[in-house]
Amino acid sequence: MRPLRVAVMLEQALELGGGFQQPLNDLLWLREWAAQSGNEIVVYSPYPKTIEILKEFGVEGRLRTFGVSDYLFLFLKYCGPFDLVQIALELKSPFERALIRDDIDVVHFTSTSKRHLLLHQLPFIITIFDGCHRDAPEFPEVRTFGEFERREILFRLASTKAVAVIVNASELIDDLCRRYAMERDRAICIPFSPSTYVSSSAPDAAADAAVLAKYRLEPGYLFYPAQFWPHKNHITLLAALALLRERGITERLVLCGSNRSGRDRIDLAIPNLGLSDQISIIGFVESAELGALYRGASALVMPTYFGPTNLPPLEAWTVGTPVIYPEAFKAQAGDAAILFDYDDPRSLADAIVSLRAEGARERLSAAGHLRLAQFAEETKAGHREFARHLERLKHRLALTER
C-alpha cells in the first residue's frame, strides 16, 4: 500500500498569535507521525513569512496563494445553488486541482478554513477551535456584516462532511453534535499545547533582561497577550486596575498583540481611568520573546470571553507564572488559576489582590505544572486516536484507487 499523502494547510497568519502557534504544534506532530509511519505530509501556506518560519524547524513549505477563481468558487459556494452546477459539470476549483496535481490524498486544515468549501473530490480533516459565534453572538467580530451566517455555513458543512474533526475540548464535541448533528465518532480531542517557542526556551537571565529592556519593562507586571478585539475584554481589566488604584494598590500591566478593532477604545479608556502611568502597550512581539515576557510577569491575567480553552494559560504554566482566568473556563484551568467573573471588574480586582496572599504564587505554580502534565497525557491520547483515524483513512482510500 502506498504512503498516505496529507496536505497540511497553515492558513493562520503569525500575527494571530495562538491561532498560528497551535497549528504549528499540530504540524510538528504530524511530521513525526509521517516519519514513523512511512506516510508523507506536504505543507502549504499562503504567507511567505510562514514559509520562512517553517525553515527554522526544518520544514520545507509550499506557497499556495488563492486566486480570483478560487474566491469566485467560494462566493458561489456560499450562494448554495452553485452546488448543483458543480455536481453536474464535475467542476473542481483551481485550489483543488493544484492539490490533485501534487498527488494529495487528504487535506488537513489546521484551522476552521473556508477553503474546505473548495474541495469537491478530496476528503478533508478540519480543526474547530471554538463555537464562540454561538456562545457570545453579541460581539461584532462574530456577528456583523454576515460573519455569523458565514460561520454557520462553515461549521455546519465542516463538522458533517469532514472525515475527522479536531477539537481541543470535550465540551466542544458536545456543542458540535448538538448544534450541527456531527457524528461523535469522527471527533478527536487534542488539547492545546504550549507554543514551542515558550516550551523550548530555557531561562536565560541575560537574554530575558535584554527582552524586557527592549520594551522598557521591569519585572513584576501583569501580562495579557491578546489581539485587540472587543471579546478580549481589555476594558474590564482596565476597570479592575482603576478600582485597585482607588484602594491604594498600583499594578502595572503589559499588553501585547496585533490591533484588530478594539485598540482605539482602549487608548481612550487608559487616560480616562487615570492609568497612563501603569499601562505599557508593546504591540505585536516576536514569538521568541514570549518566554521572557511570561517569566517577567507576576501573573497572566486573561479576561477573554471566548473559550472553552486558550493557549496563554498553558504558556504561563510552562514557565511557572500564576494565572488569573475567567471562572467560565474552569474546565481548562482546574485549580491552577485564580478564577473571577469576566463581567465584573470588582471580581477581577479581588482576584488580583488574592495573588498577594502568602503561598499563593507557589501553590498556583505547582498546580500549573500538574495541569500541564494532565494535558500532555490527554494530548498523547488524542494523537494516538488521530493516527488511528489516518491509518483507517489510508486503508479506505486505497480501496478507491483505480
UniProtKB/TrEMBL annotation:
<feature type="domain" description="Glycosyl transferase family 1">
    <location>
        <begin position="218"/>
        <end position="363"/>
    </location>
</feature>
<keyword id="KW-0808">Transferase</keyword>
<protein>
    <submittedName>
        <fullName>Glycosyltransferase family 4 protein</fullName>
    </submittedName>
</protein>
<dbReference type="InterPro" id="IPR001296">
    <property type="entry name" value="Glyco_trans_1"/>
</dbReference>
<dbReference type="Pfam" id="PF00534">
    <property type="entry name" value="Glycos_transf_1"/>
</dbReference>
<dbReference type="GO" id="GO:0016757">
    <property type="term" value="F:glycosyltransferase activity"/>
</dbReference>
